[in-house]
Amino acid sequence: MKASFLMLSAAVVMAIQGGLVPPIAWAADRPAQADCASVANLDLDDERFHPDWTTVANAERLARWHGYLGLVQIPADAAHRPSETAAIIVRAYVPAGGMWSVEDRSVVWREADGTWWFWRQRINYSAPSPSPPPPPPPGQPAPPYRPPTLEERFPPSTGRLAAGQAQAMEVAYGDACRGWDPEFFPSEQPFLRPVEGRQSDLCPPDSSAFFAEITEVDRPQLLYVAACQNHTPTFALMRGATYAAADAPQE
After folding, report:
1. What is the pLDDT of residues 141-170, one digit of tens each?
2. How crowded is the C-beta side of 80, counted as CA atoms within 13 Å?
3. Residue 12 and residue 63: Cα distance in Å, rounded?
4. By the 8 A CB rule, do 7 and 59 touch?
5. pLDDT confidence tier of residue 22, bands split at 50, 70 and 90
6. Nearest Cα to 225, choosing from 32, 74, 21?
7. pLDDT attached to residue 150
8. What is the DSSP string of 86-152?
9. For residues 19 and 183, is the Cβ–Cβ distance under 8 A?
10. How far is CA 216 from CA 23, 61, 88, 100, 121, in A?
C-alpha cells in the first residue's frame, strides 16, 4: 500500500487532501441518526461509503472528479458572482454520458443577506454545430471563419434564484441532518436493518452521477459525489444547484 501511494501524482495527492474528508466539525451539531429520515437506516460506517482513496484507481477517480468541478467557473465578467461574505457556495456538475448528451455546470450561492443567486450553463453535445457562412462570390476572398465556442453556443444564465427553488435551498441549507450526509453516496447503500428482505438499496440503472463542491463559512470546503439521486439534504443542495433557474418573467 505504501508503494502504491508513493506512485500517486501531485494532483492526485491534492485531490485526496482537498475533498472527501469526514466533516468532524458537524458531529456536535447534528441530531441522532435515527432522527434523520434520509439516513436513519443506512449503515454509514460500511466501507462502501468510505472507499480507500489511497489506492491508485480510487485516487485517479478523485482527481478526475476534481477536474470536473474545475470546469465550473463563473467568468470574471459575469453579471453576478458570489461575494466574499457568501454564506454557502455550491458548485455542481453533471456530466454527459451514455444516452444523455447534456452537461450541466452551475453555481448557486446564498449571500449574507439571505438572498440566493445562481449561474448555470447547460451544454448539449448532440446539438448540431452551426454551419460556416456560404462561400463568397467567385473572385472574392473568403473572410476568416472562427467556429463559435461552447460559451457562445450555449451562453450561461444568471440572476436571482427562483423563489420556490430558493425556499427549497434554504430548507436544505438549514437542515442539521446534513451533518450525517456521506460525502460519497455509492451505487449500493447498505442498510442497518433489512427492509422487505433486502440488505441494501441500489441506484437505478443508467443513473446520472452528481458532483458538487460545497464551501461554507467556518467549515472545510468539501467534495460531494452521489452515484444517483437520493433524499439527503446535501443532495437537495446539489440538485437545486444543478437545475437552478430564475422565475419566469411576469407577463
Report:
1. 888 888 888 888 999 999 999 999 999 999
2. 20
3. 5
4. no
5. very low
6. 21
7. 82
8. -SEEEEEEE--BTTB-EEEEEEEEE-TTS-EEEEEEEEETTSPPPPPPPPPPTTSPPPP--PPPHHH
9. yes
10. 12, 24, 4, 31, 23
Grid cell digits, residue 148: 463559435
